[in-house]
Design brief:
membrane; cell membrane; 2 domains; mainly alpha; transmembrane helix; 398 residues
Amino acid sequence: MIDGIRFKFLLNQKIVYGLYILLAVVAAVKQYLHHSFNNYLIFKYTFWHLIDLKPLYFNSPLNPYFDCNHYGPAFTLFIAPFAILPDWTGTVLWNVANVLVLLWGIFSLPLKTNTKIIIAYICAHEALTSLFSYQFNVALTGSILLSFSYIIRKENFKSAFFIAFGTMVKLYGIVALAFFFFTKDKLKFILYGLFCLALLFFVPMLFSSPQYILNTYHEWYISLVEKNNSNTSLDSFQDISLMGFVRRVAHNKAIPNWPMLMGGLTLFILPYIRIDQYKEVGYRLMLLASTLIFTVIFSTGSESPTYIIAFVGIAIWFVIQPKKNWFVITLLILAFLITSLSPTDIVPKDVRYFIRIYSLKALPCVMVWFFIIYQMLTINFKKELSMQKLNQEFAKDL
């Protein structure tokens, strides 16, 4: 009886929000007190550099931080409310804002509330990893989820806005175009998207100048190309991807990305041939999970804090499984142990180094992704009983 009460207590949306806000605050305060908030300073000064018409992608020795910014000019709009605050306040509120967007996205999904709460719990530790680095990936994940939820609810403008926002901030957001075929008003959706892109392109000019923004987009492109080249070294903290795993196991940084990218893209697109399944909520959620994982495991820019994106995909995949058999549970356990826990002090230092140097953090996510593709090609989402229940739950939600 007591255990039942405790379990019911945990399955409370307010408890989840409280937990995530607590994680955000603790991570922010801890890093701030240890003077370890370099990422936040990079983000903060993008706004002030915009105002002062300074380069966004050049690391001057005069800057109070090291490394370079790699986010688009539109990002300056999102960070602006925090940049004007003292750092001790800005760091905390920045983390809190990120988790609120993530939870907004999770609780927008067409699933029962208890199921969405379980997703949030599964992802909590991976979110904490990103929060220690003040990563925007937490909010970016939420924006991808929102673009999905709004498009299947036929709120095309909202969906188009979040796709445009994610794209203009970090390019990753463009992957939400994978959900384009779920809308009937495709022309209207495209027009909304173009309007949102234009809006996010021109608004930063109000704080700077048109020529400055045009130059900045060119510099952004150059910075991304340079970053991609540096990521593929065999000892970097980036390239925690399928390509990085292959290069590092082979000890050959010359292995190109394109064969694996083309193979991955082909597999990603293959389930689209099942047009008759498009209307099924189970199929749509599987595609969402596939998209979130694909975004990370096929990116040379993926680092440990990026995996909040993929881990939400794994959590969604797990909760909608028709049968949670030993194979499915084993994949989830491997993902939690190797992907989520590997950067922590729970894992011995030598093991952590081994996992990082061979990009093994990506491996469970790769395994889950291949299984998702198999399921999307073989499951009849119309006839599968558990998937029919998802459709019924979504119909009630609407």
